[in-house]
Amino acid sequence: MSAVLTTAIAPPSRDAAGSQNMLQLIQLRWIAVVGQIITIAVVEFGFGIRLPLRLMALVLATLVLLNILSLLRLRMRGSVSNAGLFLALVFDVAALTAQLYLSGGATNPFISLYLLQVTLAAILLEMRWAWGMAFITSACCLGLTLAYRPLALPDHLSDDLFRLHLQGILVCFILVATLLVVFVTRISGNLRARDAKLAALRQQAAEEDHIVRMGLLASGAAHELGTPLSTVSVILGDWQRVPALQAMPDIAQDMEDMQAAIRRCKAILTGILMSAGEARGEAPAVTTLHAFLDDLITNWRLSRPAGRLIYDSNFGEDVPIVADVALKQVIANVLDNAYEASPSHIRLTAVRNGDDLVLTVSDDGPGFVPDMLEQIGKPYQSTKGRLGGGLGLFLVVNVLRKLGGSVAARNRPEGGATVTLTLPLSGLLIEKSGSHV
């Protein structure tokens, strides 16, 4: 089975865990409403214990209204802070206190449901809010020992009150244990997802800081190398105008080749600057997707005459785009990596998948080692064994990420490797990029 790695970074929401946890509290409140209805019905009609049904129904209606308002708030404003979660738990505690006050106060075995609220607060909230919930529930428990509406028990239950209390404690324990397992597991999953997103944010910030430092290094190198390259180019231009040298065809051809090599060096420096610095290159040009890819392939073949590149375009109808020099450099980097692994066979395919441009580069080389697949997209991960290597795919991943795309790499079962670049067309189409035209 081939190993696969996909890198796609989406902007994570810092408050996503809060909104998910609020949804869990809303679900818990629905369960509380249903559970209270069942309990009231059993006590009233099963045991014959008279309860203030109207007042208890008013509390239930308040919980239902609170749930509806909470859902509307989540739709209008998805983020939920610690204060919002704390307030929701306070409302639940208030409703529980009202129901317990109307049904025996501290003598009601369901008073231990307060522990569920305290546990949720300890998991969901910061320490000060959790301690606040502990204080509120303790105060409610104390108040219910001092003031409550006593239950009027029928004569046939008065003699067996202790057994009835033990049954209530057992039911309450099973209920609390079940709810804790279900909801704490879900909430812990939400918190783990939040932590994973925060870790991804920190990793992305570190990589972007690395790119900035690479950009500064590339800028300094461009300034340092640009001057001597320009000097050599000027000298060669002067030599090319010397009649005696023009009369020597071999020397004239050598000077022309040297000029071409200098232009190539300047183009490489420009590509490094654009890849390391800006996700979108400077001075983008208006063209079409087919022309952009054809020009890229033509230039790559001219600089790699020994390479055998097969290009298949199944994109379909051509579309006008803004040509991005950084994207061209990214695709060239992937082709260069394939060329070094398998110069005799490289295939590039371009297809359209919905609103995405999908470019696939495959080769017949040795493929990626498993450790490389796990580390693709991180700097200095290379199998070439040279100092400072492994920056090509690092730049590819980060440039594609800034353009809203993704990079996937895998080993082919028949041998070789495949790198797939997925790029949203909205980042290239002219009608979506009016500021670049």
Fold topology:
Layout: E1 4-7, H1 16-46, H2 53-76, H3 82-101, H4 114-124, H5 127-146, H6 155-158, H7 161-240, H8 243-246, H9 249-276, E2 285-288, H10 289-303, E3 309-314, E4 320-323, H11 325-341, E5 346-353, E6 356-363, H12 370-375, H13 392-402, E7 406-411, E8 417-424
Parallel strand pairs: 3-5
Antiparallel strand pairs: 1-7, 2-4, 5-6, 6-8, 7-8
Helix pairs in contact: 1-2, 1-3, 1-7, 2-3, 3-4, 3-5, 4-5, 4-7, 7-9, 9-11, 10-11, 11-13
Query: What level of helicity do the residues show?
Result: 55-70%
Radius of gyration: 35 Å
Fraction in beta strands = 5-15%
Order of helices and strands: EHHHHHHHHHEHEEHEEHHEE
- Gap from first CA to last CA: 46 Å
* Gross geometry: rod-shaped
Please provide a written account of the structure.
With 437 residues, the chain is an alpha+beta fold. The chain contains 13 helices and 8 strands. It has helices at residues 16-46, 53-76, 82-101, 114-124, 127-146, 155-158, 161-240, 243-246, 249-276, 289-303, 325-341, 370-375, 392-402, and strands spanning 4-7, 285-288, 309-314, 320-323, 346-353, 356-363, 406-411, 417-424. A hairpin with a 5-residue loop joins strand 7 (406-411) and strand 8 (417-424). Residues 1-14, 276-282, 385-389 and 432-437 have low confidence and may be disordered.
